[in-house]
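Running this now, will post back.
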Amino acid sequence: MSTRDPAGPADTALPEYRAQHLRDRLAREDVAELGVRVELRGHTVLVWGPVSGEDCRETVLRIAAEVLRPLTWRHDLTVVSARPPDREEDLP
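Update: finished.
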């Protein structure tokens, strides 16, 4: 999924700074997801990795939109569950 601020063209002068700022902010916030990675691929920032729930995913996306505006960025965040199984496993 791509996200771009419709207000104007992407500011490509500072993508490294913005990517690092996003890493720092995610580490400071209550959402602090250790599996989330922020990488620069050309002039596009990629935010990817596992998150613990849909609320967390939405928070990471909101923060990324705030920090990375107006850069072009993509995300691939996967909601994973660390809950134990709800039934016994049947082994042959």
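The radius of gyration is 16 Å. More later if anyone needs it.
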